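Field log, afternoon session.

UNIT: design team B
ACTIVITY: writing a sequence onto a fixed backbone
BACKBONE:
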């Protein structure tokens, strides 16, 4: 049995989580030795009881690592272990790092500059717009966007990062052969095809359940340089991710919402408890610092790849200069309907041609 097969087998065993695996590896040195250890020696390891020792001793009843590796290869999925250079550096320092990662797509050293974006699956129009705006501009600034491929805010964030021609990492709470939610398979394919990676710590055919999602959340929190929470209710799993990020010492940003909307209760509570309120992606960049080399690439991309501005966008942009202008003034001068002007201003923001200021004021960048 190869070292990789041993790791794949150990990772697939039921009821043996990352912390217990870490203790076993510290006690025996490597996965092959763990799987070959007699029951009496396994029982000497802290928090390894008779049930766990029996599972380890009879590991062949639970998994076929050679078949798992062969299937991953057929599907174009890499298996990255902690000994591999591609393994994300921030995860190595976590208390309970994944033993290995199944990677569909590619990881890059630039992914250490990443921002986690999380929020409700039942996103409102407001929440989805905000997620697209933040993820688009942060991706253009060189940050990889990490999220969970879930419906709602996660989907909007991944889509915006792809649209910005940036990188995005989708960490899923299932095996990659049981991708969840299934309707996001086209988005996952797009991410894997040159825009980042879809990642899981679970064996290929693991179905999602109540345990896999919190485990997924800890990876998002540990991998991200900072976490941004956009629209979540008071009982949201996004709050678990935010708490984990705080425990890892990562900055937590939250977008405020209306005080009478349950969908914003979680974000507003995070702000009350000390998360940094943000209303514009530039505020995150000011706190974290822009990435100068990737920023140059993004600016060059904007200049060379963006098409000529549509008539509405060109007309609104012509009304702005470096001084802040209230939106009412822009609407009056343009002669366009208010909803057209506000939508156009958001498009110009996403192109990083316009910057928004408090009080619905705008200026050219």
């Amino acid at each position: 049995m190869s070292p990789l097969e041993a790791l794949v087998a150990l990772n697939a065993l039921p009821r043996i989580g990352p912390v217990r695996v870490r203790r076993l590896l510290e006690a025996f040195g490597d996965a092959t030795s763990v799987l070959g250890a007699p029951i009496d020696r396994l029982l000497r390891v802290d928090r390894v009881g008779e049930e766990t020792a029996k599972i380890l001793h009879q590991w062949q009843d639970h998994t076929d690592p050679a078949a798992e590796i062969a299937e991953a290869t057929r599907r174009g999925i890499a298996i990255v272990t902690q000994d591999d250079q591609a393994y994300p550096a921030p995860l190595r320092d976590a208390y309970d790092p994944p033993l290995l990662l199944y990677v569909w797509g590619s990881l890059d050293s630039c992914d250490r500059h990443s921002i986690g974006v999380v929020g409700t699956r039942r996103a409102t129009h407001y929440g989805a717009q905000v997620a697209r705006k933040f993820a688009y501009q942060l991706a253009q600034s060189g940050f990889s966007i990490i999220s969970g491929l879930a419906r709602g805010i996660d989907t909007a964030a991944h889509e915006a990062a792809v649209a910005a021609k940036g990188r995005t990492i989708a960490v899923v709470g299932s095996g990659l052969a049981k991708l969840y939610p299934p309707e996001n398979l086209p988005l996952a394919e797009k991410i894997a095809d040159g825009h980042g990676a879809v990642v899981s710590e679970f064996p290929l055919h693991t179905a999602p359940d109540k345990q896999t999602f919190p485990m997924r959340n800890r990876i998002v929190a540990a991998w991200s340089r900072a976490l941004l929470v956009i629209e979540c209710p008071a009982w949201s799993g996004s709050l678990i991710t935010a708490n984990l990020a705080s425990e890892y010492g990562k900055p937590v940003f939250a977008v405020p919402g209306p005080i009478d909307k349950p969908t914003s209760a979680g974000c507003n509570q995070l702000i009350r408890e000390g998360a940094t309120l943000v209303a514009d992606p530039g505020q995150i960049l000011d706190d974290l610092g822009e990435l100068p080399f990737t920023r140059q690439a993004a600016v060059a991309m904007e200049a060379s790849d963006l098409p000529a501005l549509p008539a509405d966008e060109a007309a609104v942009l012509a009304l702005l200069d470096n001084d802040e202008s209230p939106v009412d003034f822009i609407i009056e001068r343009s002669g366009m309907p208010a909803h057209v002007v506000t939508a156009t201003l958001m498009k110009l923001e996403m192109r990083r041609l316009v910057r928004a200021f408090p009080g619905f004021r705008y200026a050219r960048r």
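LOG NOTE: Confidence is low (pLDDT under 50) at residues 292-306.
NEXT ACTIVITY: expression trials, pending approval
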